[in-house]
Amino acid sequence: MSTATDFKTLLDNIKIDNAGQISKRYGRITKALNQYFYNLDSKTANSLQVGSYGRFTGIRGISDLDMLYFLPATAWPRFRDRQSYLLQVVKTEIKKT
What we know:
Number of strands: 2
Order of helices and strands: HHEHEHH
Distance between the termini: 47 Å
Strand order of the largest sheet: 1-2
């Protein structure tokens, strides 16, 4: 075997094989949060994929997706000193997906 063949085999062995599932879940979560916080029907607005998957450095076996979600400024007064309440709201909305 050549070095190129060995390297291709390595890449094939570590390639993420559930990217479609991760993408669908990301879209559903983002859409649910957008509907709740912005009354918006978007699967991509106001969020970013971060972590190894978002940087395209994840490998096969990845089991989570790190997301960054941007809350509207209007949510600040409601959740300012109530972080656990914010987490509960987010959890409830995600469970609906």
